[in-house]
Write a structure and sequence with these properties.
The protein has 27 helices and 28 strands. By secondary structure, it is of the alpha+beta class. Keywords: Aminopeptidase, Hydrolase, Metal-binding, Metalloprotease, Protease, Zinc.
Length: 861
């Protein structure tokens, strides 16, 4: 599972309304916060908000019976949205003799249960658990087969889910009656965490493993996908077709999947294995642009881990209205529709991050599986680190380090209100495990472990872990023991402080130079009542007389001083020189030191941090010189940050009218000329877009031709930047015709920009366009569209205004995704002064059943 699901709540995150996203605490340095080096707040006298709350112990499920093999025969009632199923389970007692079989089976109609021999079995059923009385007591050496005829009715289940997996009904019918003109008919499943038992009876626990067969009977126009190999497709006399999929290697029930739809299947191969991409037909020509790096990923991961990709094939399918980002079902990953991009959209966006994540899961999560949701980071932290490994291989260490730095910042945002151990044996709900701890924090921890033991030992340890535990389930100590056996070192200290304790270190560094030494004082300022004092092996680099000296240090105390030899006053002292630390680091530096850091640090992250820290000093001559160099840097994000620094400075000048030079001064002409060149010619589309935004901040009509040209760029990101730039112009009439040419775009980025443009400059005639987008958009695109739509409604009169309010209200009340309902509610608040809207908001609050939204609405009142 990929936490890209959090992207779908970006609108809610941006508005600070989700429980894990709040504004910075008093005393937090906002500039440093943007770097991931947050100044620690003063210790609080009361218990901090982030301290873990008491929660029950959550053990691994006790294994009474073991499902060895599952055979399923399924067909469907589209009208009722039911699955008609026959399950034959081959089982045996796990260890102790058993005369009953208890299965998870949620919301079924049970037609009959019998042994394979035909003998009817007695059972009790409460709608969730199926308790079957066997014909005798079986020992662990005796297998038995149970046949269950049933109907699964997922839409009749009580709604549930989490931020990461927004629904848990397991089986989904998309546009089942074909009533939505522009939406395909599909059926697909989502098993994690314990939702496979919503469509077939099983022991729905991650510490269960089984082989499987799946016979899918469906209309002939549909293609199917499941785990393992397609053995045959057989046409039936009634006009249907039965596809037989067989999975010969064991895996956990939550990884069982099927997907059904009118897909285009684009074929690829890797080492004589089928590598298939299932997409909607309109994306057939761009499927290899989206997924085409998969064979190279398979080669790279297999070689890096020393363990060959273990499954019979690998397929990737894109489905509509998916309830998460993506899911690593064994040999067949499922992705949300956001990964479907045209070749033009691929100029701006790559899906390699999420593709690499799900593929790495085929080893970590599928081949070796967490035994309990408490140990979820054994799946997700490693899969997230797989993203880093792919970027490091494909794009270089700078790109990989930037992704890892983004992981740090993401975790730190969550840590403001939540700090829990990575491995959590106490939690309220298993869904709580799917957070930025299990993903982003865990990935950074794996990187620190790699840096500590070294590359050779790190990958040898992962290989040992995979080989010794393949087709098994594990807990955190299995990983620790693998590393200890390879390295020969007791690593309890590392695993205890990083996996089993909450929080992170907060370092405050001060330095002075005396008697040929750099005296470095490092304090751990985190509240040690709730967070450990860490053992931190770090690298400190000192530059003296332009000579670089590396000093390995190990911090073990709350307040510790290190003396490092230096022949002269150092030009720069860089603590955590490799930017590997999971934590915060406050180390005040002068502009001269930051400038030196930019030129000499080497790696992208410390160079970028220096640029960001110099934002407030843009008008100083030496900083100006640095920024002009940065505008020509070979690394795209350095160029982007330099461009952004000018944008931020201009905006500050425009807002404050003091404290910064006006960029209209003649000495800035070369800078503006270079930014103009970047806007027109930079090879990276996002840098061109950033440059356009900076030119717009100058409020100089001389750049209008640049914005006009952007409207015809091959990149949708650049086009949308051009539209955004025109929003701030006083006279937009000359561009209305050009903008009308964009109204038929399918680009969600351009649609969002146009919506903002019309919200400010609309002529009141664009309502049909807004109405069309409202029915076409979904997911995060819809949430970002709604505020602009609400603002636009002030430009139109009734009945269109009331129609628009009604449409937003309907989304806020009835949309199946909670984050879209939230976006609808927030959009309505922008119209709160309209007659009756306050009462509508009250009704929405009172009728909302989702506890997450109930909490948010209470905060908003």
């Amino acid at each position: 599972m990929n936490l890209k699901a959090f992207a779908v709540i970006s609108f809610a995150v941006a508005t600070g309304m989700l429980s894990g996203c709040k504004t910075a605490k008093p005393g937090t340095n906002q500039n440093n916060a943007s770097l991931g080096i947050i100044t620690a707040p003063e210790k609080q006298k009361t218990v901090p908000e982030w301290v873990p709350k008491p929660a029950p112990y959550q053990p691994s499920r006790t294994q009474l019976n073991d499902i060895i093999h599952t055979k399923l025969r399924v067909s469907f009632d589209w009208q009722k949205q039911h699955l008609l199923g026959e399950a034959t389970l081959t089982c045996k007692p796990y260890f102790y003799p058993q005369n009953t079989l208890i299965l998870d089976a949620k919301g079924f109609d049970i037609k009959s249960i019998e042994l394979a021999s035909g003998k009817e079995l007695k059972y009790t059923y409460d709608g969730k658990k199926l308790n079957i009385t066997l014909d005798k007591t079986y020992t662990r050496d005796q297998k038995y087969e149970v046949y269950i005829n049933y109907v699964a009715k997922p839409n009749e289940l009580e709604a549930g889910g989490s931020a990461a997996i927004t629904s848990d009904k397991g089986l989904y019918f998309i546009n089942p009656l074909g009533e939505e003109k522009d939406k395909p008919r599909q059926i697909w499943t989502q098993g994690e965490t314990e939702a496979s038992s919503c469509w077939f009876p099983t022991i729905d626990s991650p510490n269960e493993k089984m082989t499987q067969e799946l016979y899918i009977t469906i209309e002939k126009n549909f293609k199917t996908l499941s785990n393992g190999t397609l053995i045959y497709s057989k046409n039936n006399a009634n006009g249907t077709r039965t596809d037989y999929w067989k999975m010969e290697l064991p895996h956990a029930p939550y990884l069982t999947m099927m997907a059904i739809g009118e897909f285009a299947v684009v074929r690829d191969t890797w080492k004589n294995k089928d590598i298939d991409y299932y997409v909607e037909p309109k994306y057939k020509n761009s499927a290899k642009g989206i997924f085409g790096n998969t064979p190279e990923m398979l080669t790279f991961f297999s070689q890096k881990l020393g363990v060959e990709y273990p499954w019979e094939k690998y397929a990737q399918v894109v489905v509509r209205d998916y309830v998460s980002g993506a899911m690593e079902n064994t040999s067949a990953s499922v992705f949300g529709e956001f990964v479907q991009l045209t070749n033009r959209e691929l100029l701006d966006h790559s899906m390699d991050e999420i593709i690499a994540h799900e593929l790495f899961h085929q080893w970590f999560g599928d081949l070796v599986t967490t035994e309990s949701w408490s140990n979820l980071p054994l799946n997700e932290s490693l899969a997230t680190y797989g993203e880093y490994l792919w970027f490091e291989h494909k794009l270089g260490v700078d790109e990989a380090d930037l992704a890892l730095n983004n992981d740090l910042k993401s975790y730190l945002r969550e840590a403001e209100t939540k700090q829990v151990p990575l491995i959590r044996y106490h939690y309220q709900d298993k869904e709580d495990m799917f957070d930025r701890h299990s993903y982003q924090k865990g990935s950074r921890v794996m990187h620190m472990l790699r840096k500590y033991v070294g590359d050779e030992a790190f990958f040898a340890s992962l290989k040992k872990y995979l080989v010794e535990n393949k087709f098994k389930t594990v807990e955190i100590h299995n990983l620790r023991l693998a590393f200890e056996e390879v390295t020969g070192e007791d690593l309890n200290w590392f695993f205890d402080q990083w996996f089993l304790q909450p929080g992170h270190p907060q370092l405050k560094v001060s330095q002075q130079y005396a008697n040929g030494k750099v005296i470095l004082n490092i304090q751990q300022t985190q509240d040690s009542t709730f967070t450990p004092i860490y053992k931190l092996p770090l690298k400190v680099v000192v530059w003296t007389n332009n000579q670089k000296t590396e000093h390995p240090i190990t911090i073990t105390k709350a307040n510790q001083t290190f003396e490092l030899p230096a022949a002269a006053q150092p030009q720069l002292v860089l603590v955590d020189a490799e930017a590997q630390l999971l934590g915060t680091l406050q180390h005040e530096k002068s502009p001269a030191e930051l400038i030196y850091q930019y030129y000499h640090a080497g790696k992208a992250v410390p160079r970028l941090q220096a640029l960001q820290a110099l934002t407030a000093k843009t008008s100083e001559p030496e900083v100006q010189k640095l920024l002009q160099n940065a505008l020509n840097d070979k690394f795209w994000l350095i160029r982007s940050q330099a461009v952004t620094n000018y944008n931020l400075t201009t905006r500050r000048f425009n807002n404050e009218k003091e404290g910064a030079k006006d960029f209209s001064a003649p000495e800035y002409n070369p800078v503006k000329q270079r930014i103009r060149e970047i806007a027109l010619k930079d090879p990276k589309t996002s840098v061109r877009a950033d440059a356009i935004a900076t030119l717009a901040s100058f409020k100089d009509p001389a750049y209008l031709p640049v914005f006009e040209k952007a409207l015809q760029d091959s990149s949708y990101t650049v086009v949308s930047a051009g539209v955004d730039a025109l929003i701030s112009q006083e006279n937009v009439q000359p561009y209305q015709t050009k903008l009308k040419n964009l109204k038929n775009t399918e680009s969600e980025e351009v649609v969002a920009a146009l919506a903002s443009f019309y919200a400010r400059h609309g002529e009141g005639t664009e309502y049909p366009w807004f109405e069309k987008q409202l029915t076409r958009l979904s997911g995060p695109a819809l949430t970002s569209f709604l505020p602009a739509f609400a603002a636009y409604l002030y430009k139109v009169e009734n009945p269109e205004r009331q129609n628009g309010i009604n449409a937003i209200e309907n989304l806020a009340k009835t949309h199946n995704a909670y984050y879209v309902r939230l976006a609808g509610y927030q959009a309505l608040t922008l119209l709160a002064d309209e007659h009756g809207v306050q009462e509508r908001l009250k009704t929405i609050r009172n009728n909302e059943k989702d506890e997450r939204l109930q909490r948010i609405y209470k905060q908003m009142q």
